[in-house]
Design brief:
Heat Shock Protein 90; 15% strand; Beta-Lactamase; 3 domains; five-stranded mixed beta sheet
Length: 440
């Protein structure tokens, strides 16, 4: 038995923890990326603002705008403007030194009667950007933690809904284990993962329940077969016991004729019991899968040999063989046993005129055994191939025909009972065999 060692960790817990782990990894990376983009964009905006104010000052200087008016027009929120003329006169805010939190742009004006050669200082306090960046960092941390918490709660609730098909599958499996049969998942779609799994689960249940039914039927048939076999054996065994006890009671002074009758009864009943046991063993070999020793077999010659055997055993019968020479690849011993069983069955059924017909087609060969007995009603033509089933006038064990059909099917052939082709009274059994050896 193959053991896969499946880890049975809770699927809900595994999916939830995996999703949270992915979220915990993704959120900081996303937060760092957002903050880096924000900081870079803020730096670019500040530089653009300062450089834009400096360019505006150059344009105003070319328009010969007065220094005070120039300072007022380039003034902006967050920007400190200082204009120092060549003579040292200052306009705007007092100048400051560029430091860690002060971003400064210095420009020399190129035009204007009073502003030519003046120095323009544009200063911006970057502490505001740092505060905005810190605020963004706090917002990202709080929102990330809130997102993780909300996601965990939604995952716990959502897993119940998402894994509901697996819960149904588990419930069905437990009901099957408890002995309830016939339940199926019946997925609405087969092109999804759960659909394919549910369909495979239903197919497995079909196979298991089919195998279970087959096993129960086989067990029931075996039980009936054993009971019937015991019943059949009881008759010859009882005859043996009765004859043996009678011989013992008669003693040595019993009449010779009486002793001879009892001894003949002992031989007949022991032979009957031995034949039944032998037939049971043959059926057991057929069920287990017999091994055929195939070689070329001439069917007409085989039929003539079996006809001659029956003439010696029962000289009062008329046995004829007709047909054409046909060769098949088969086990000659098993084919001989099939014909022997069919001929013995015809004799036991009361037939006195038997005929064996051999013919062939392109792919199959046929052997038909006909008799002039009472025939077999159409309703019983399959039943007679069941084990231990006797015909109305049969004196056999009821195993000859099942054994013959078993050997025929082992050759990939067929054995059936039908009406005689010439419409005469009696029965006909047709054996069909492939002309060549079938693949193993």
């Amino acid at each position: 038995m193959t053991e896969f060692g499946l880890r049975t960790v809770s699927l809900r817990r595994r999916v939830t923890l995996t999703a949270l782990a992915v979220l915990i990894v993704v959120l900081p990376i996303t937060g760092f990326a957002v903050k880096a983009v924000f900081d870079a964009q803020a730096e670019r905006n500040l530089n653009t603002l300062l450089n834009g104010r400096a360019q505006l000052a150059q344009q105003l200087a070319r328009q010969n705008v007065a220094p005070a008016a120039l300072v007022r027009r380039i003034d902006a929120d967050g920007v400190r403007v200082t204009l120092i003329l060549r003579g040292g006169q200052q306009f705007g805010a007092p100048p400051v030194e560029a430091a860690g939190e002060i971003r400064q742009v210095r420009a020399t004006l190129q035009a204007g009667q009073r502003t030519r050669g003046a120095t323009l200082l544009l200063s911006a306090d970057t502490s505001l950007l740092d505060e905005a960046s810190s605020t963004l960092r706090v917002v990202l941390l709080i929102s990330g933690a809130a997102a993780i918490g909300i996601t965990a709660l939604l995952l716990v609730a959502g897993m119940r809904f998402a894994l509901e098909p697996l819960d149904r599958m588990t419930g069905l499996a437990r009901s099957i284990a408890a002995g309830v049969r016939g339940g199926r998942l019946q997925p609405t779609r087969h092109d999804t993962e759960l659909g394919r799994t549910a369909a495979a689960f239903d197919e497995m249940l079909d196979s298991l329940e089919g195998a279970e039914r087959s096993a129960r039927n086989s067990e029931e048939r075996m039980r009936e077969f054993v009971a019937d076999a015991a019943h059949e054996l009881r008759t010859p065994v009882a005859g043996l016991q009765s004859a043996a006890e009678t011989l013992l009671q008669l003693g040595p002074d019993a009449p010779a004729e009486r002793r001879a009758d009892l001894e003949l009864l002992l031989v007949r009943e022991s032979r009957r019991a031995g034949t039944l046991v032998s037939d049971l063993l043959e059926l057991a070999r057929i069920d287990a899968g017999i091994e055929l020793r195939r070689r070329p077999v001439h069917l007409l010659e085989l039929a003539e040999n079996q006809a001659e055997r029956l003439r010696l055993v029962a000289p009062e019968l008329t046995v004829r063989t007709e047909g054409e020479p046909v060769q098949v690849i088969a086990d000659p011993d098993r084919l001989a046993q099939i014909l022997a069983n069919l001929l013995d069955n015809a004799r036991q059924a009361g037939g006195t005129d038997l005929r064996i017909l051999v013919g062939a087609g392109e792919r199959f060969a046929e052997v038909v055994v006909e008799d002039n007995g009472p025939g077999v009603p159409p309703a019983d033509r399959e039943r007679i191939f069941q084990r231990l089933v006797h015909g109305e006038r049969s004196r056999g064990s009821g195993l000859g025909l099942p054994i013959a059909r078993g050997f025929a099917e082992a050759h990939r052939g067929q054995l059936i009972c039908l009406d005689r082709a010439d419409n005469h009274p009696g029965a006909a059994f047709r054996l069909t065999l492939p002309r060549t050896s079938p693949p193993s």
